Amino acid sequence: MEQSQRFRASDLIQTILPVLVLATVSLRVVECKVHSSGPDALHYRAINCRKHSALLTDFGAVGDGKTLNTKAFKAAIDSLGTYASQGGAQLIVPPGKWLTGSFNLTSSHFTLFLHKDAVILASQDEAEWPLVPALPSYGRGRDGNGDGRFSSLIFGTNLTDIIITGNNGTIDGQGQYWWDKFHQGQFNVT
């Protein structure tokens, strides 16, 4: 009986040890720092830091919840996308309310990091939402008679190593506007 107990204990150790090692590795965080164009640097904790990073404000964004920042998001993503072959880059969304339309992640090896007090607000201006072809699984417009669909708030295709993370920042799609129009049958697209 003592030998069977030892056997079970060794099985337990062999099972638990890899889990403990994996848990220890996954809990490792590092302190990252981004120098902004302003007087203050932003510090944050992450699993790892990309070699290249920038603040959204470096591209002219204004976090007042009223100024449209779609062009700033696109400019930042385009600029940081040039570092994809060098290990990638990270766009940090600092504290504030960042109103934006749909934007496209265009390069692999990219991190979108939301500060804990950052809110990405989806614009309710339909002109800020490009139409894209309906997905094949939808057929000819799942929710409307048209052939297209609105792009997602954060969109990308054929990309790898894309991370959307942060310190519990918020992505607010402001969906009530869209649901009201949907329930009133006011869309010709999905």
Write structural notes for this entry.
By secondary structure, the chain is an alpha/beta fold. The chain is 24% helix and 31% strand. A 4-stranded parallel β-sheet has the order 3-5-8-13, with helices on one face. The protein has a 4-stranded parallel β-sheet with strand order 4-6-9-14, with helices on one face. The protein has a two-stranded antiparallel sheet with strand order 1-2. It is globular. It starts with a helix and ends in a 7-residue tail after the last helix. Residues 20-29 have low confidence and may be disordered.
Q: Any descriptors?
A:
single chain; 190 residues; alpha/beta; 4-stranded parallel β-sheet; 14 strands; 24% helix
**Given the C-alpha coordinates, what overall shape results?**
globular
| Low-confidence spans | 20-29
Strand fraction band? 25-35%
**Strand pairing plus helix content: what structural class?**
alpha/beta
